[in-house]
Amino acid sequence: MTQPVNSPAVEPLHAPASLRELFFAFTWLALQGFGGVLPVAQRELVERLRWLTKAQFVEMLAVSQVLPGPNVVNLALMFGDRAFGVRGAFTALAGMLAAPLVVVLAATALYGHFAQLPAVTGALRGMSAVAAGLIISTALKLLATLRTHPMGLPLALGFSAATFIATALLRWPLVWVIAGLGAVSIAVAWQRLRP
Amino acid sequence: MNHGHPDLLGLFTHFLVLSLLAIGGAITTVPDMHRYIVVEQHWLTDAQFSASIAIAQAAPGPNLLFVAVLGWNVAGPWGALVTMTGNLLPSTVLTLWATRWGSQRRETRGVRAFTTGLTPLTLGLLTATGWVLAEPFVAQPAHRWGAVGLIVVTVLAMLRTRLSPLWLVALGAVAGVMGWV
Lengths: 195, 181
Known about the structure:
The complex is a heterodimer. By secondary structure, chain A is mostly helical. Chain A folds into 2 domains: 19-142, no CATH class; 149-195, no CATH class. Chain A is 73% helix and 0% strand. Chain A is built from 7 helices and no strands. In chain A, helix 1 packs across helix 4 and helix 2 packs across helix 5. Chain B has 7 helices and no strands. The relative contact order of chain B is 0.08. Chain B is flat.
């Protein structure tokens, strides 16, 4: 499980061979997703299965973030739809939700009995710290894709930093951040993409 | 703490509306769910509401599943069904429609400007999510060094090895049980 890594996430790209493969790929990545599925989705879809390049992943993520609904759910829908149409979309969605739903409802039923044990609260705390680290590492990996961004690295990084400051530090409502910064950023991209 | 019969239709409609407001993920609509379920309808207590979210965060799978746990705690299996369907239906339809519209025009300047323009924001948001999750640990002196250590180990392992995230989560759980975090 621990081969050293040289440069994953480059072509050649593969694609899911069947709806069945799609379903189980999303089940497997969802079941690994403690505290959030996104880092695992990146690792599985980009690095292990190579169904998407890093850049494709970031682009899908960008779109799934502005659309309402949970990002990873939108990502599953978009990926499934691209691979097999509507059937693929619902297969990926079902794959991502079915097994974890059973697990989480079972956990809900059990929680009442174990909530007061220090070992349980300790384990939850350790797992959430790791979850934070997983998200941060995913962000760092994907920020590397800005090197080839049409507006150039410094400007693109500037928009990322401004978004970070507005949402994490100033806690501005997300809708306004996306409407305001997003509009400027899209306008700049429009300029830079001039044919 | 269930006050009488929770109104399944009301629950459904409320989550239906929140679905379309959930830009940036279902977690951003938590304050409004709290207002409706705890403050207005008294279906759950504050503690029950928070526990519902904590369980879903700790269990594997999309964070969205906290919606099912809330529904379950309000009205059992039917509650879970109603909140999940309500929360997924509108956003799913919109996502499918919008991606199809967009992918037919993927190479046009407008769509390219839209997706490449939003990419830096997306990555800023992802970094912000990591920060928001990590911050409570940094703020608590009792847990600071253990948790920060665990976060740093996780980041290094993810960047430099192909270790499955599962091992890191297991490491976090063990560290927590041993009281190091």
